[in-house]
Amino acid sequence: MKAYIEETSEYLKSKGFTAPDVGIILGTGLSKILEHIDIQHEVSYNHIPNFPTATVEFHKGKLIYGTLEGKNVIVMQGRFHLYEGYTLTDVTYPVRVMHELGIKHLLVSNASGAINTSFKKGEMMLIDDHINLQGGSPLAFKGVEKMGERFVDMSAPYDKAMSATIEKIAASKDINLHKGVYASVFGPQLETRAEYRYLKIIGADAVGMSTVPEIIVANHLNLPVAAVSVLTDECDPDNLKPVDISEIIAMAEKAEPHMITLFTELIKTL
C-alpha cells in the first residue's frame, strides 16, 4: 500500500498539492465551504492514480487545493462509503494520502440522524466519541505494522484541543452545538424502529454511514482530528416518519453556514 500512497502523492504534488496544513472531508450536502476557499487546483478522483471514484450521486468526487484563513487546505468534495462496495482500505485511502502530502490536522463533517430525542434536525453535534458498527477495521490488513502501531489506542480518538476550540467558537457565535457519540453503521438502508431503539440503548446520540473509519486511520497516523455532524433527521422510533434523501440534503444545506463558521474560525487558530 505504501508504494500506492507514494505514487498518488507524487501525482498530486505535480498538480500543485504542495505543503498542505489542513485536510477537510465534506459530508453529504456540505460543499458550500468551497465558496470561502481561494481554490488553486482541483482534480477529479477518477484522474488520480489508485484513488477510488465517488459513486453516490450527491457526492461530487473532487480533490481541491487552496487557501482558507491563511492555511493551505486539501478538501475532499465527496467521500467514499462501504455501502458503495468499497473496502475499508479504499474508504480511508485519501486520509493516508493527505497525511503523506503533509497535513497536520484533519477536519471531518457528516450528515447524520439524531438518535438523542433532545437533538433537533438542523442542529449540529460535535463528535466526542464513536461506536463502530461497520463490522470491520481499516487497520485489519497484512503489513499494517509497517505503517504505524497495529493496536491503536482509541481512548480519546477526537483531538481534545481542537474540539474545545470548536466549542468555544460555537459559544461565542451563539451556535447551538451539541456534543455526543456517533454510531457508524454500514448502510445504505436507513434504520428500522428496533435498530434506532438499539442505538439509543448502547449510547449513541447520532447515527451515520461514514466518518469512523477515517477517524481510526487518523489515529493510526497520529493525525489530530475533529468532527462535526449536521443532524438532518430525527430518529425517534415512536414517531418515525419515512425519510426522503432530498430532505436530508436540504436540511444539511440549511445548517451548513454554522458548520462553515466553526471550521473557518478553527482553522484560524491552528
TrEMBL record:
Any one biological process term the GO annotation gives: nucleoside metabolic process
Superkingdom of the organism of origin: Bacteria
GO cellular component, one term: cytoplasm
InterPro entries referenced in this protein's UniProt entry, alphabetically: Nucleoside_phosphorylase_d (IPR000845), Nucleoside_phosphorylase_sf (IPR035994), Purine_phosphorylase (IPR011268)
Pathway assigned in UniProt: Purine metabolism; purine nucleoside salvage
GO MF, any single term: purine-nucleoside phosphorylase activity
Sorted UniProt keywords: Glycosyltransferase, Transferase
Ranges where the Nucleoside phosphorylase domain occurs: 22-268
Enzyme class name: transferase
Keyword Transport assigned: no
Keyword Cell wall biogenesis/degradation: no
EC number from the UniProt entry: 2.4.2.1
A Pfam family assignment: PNP_UDP_1
Family: Belongs to the PNP/MTAP phosphorylase family.
Known function: The purine nucleoside phosphorylases catalyze the phosphorolytic breakdown of the N-glycosidic bond in the beta-(deoxy)ribonucleoside molecules, with the formation of the corresponding free purine bases and pentose-1-phosphate.
Protein name as catalogued: Purine nucleoside phosphorylase
Species, as recorded: Croceibacter atlanticus (strain ATCC BAA-628 / JCM 21780 / CIP 108009 / IAM 15332 / KCTC 12090 / HTCC2559)
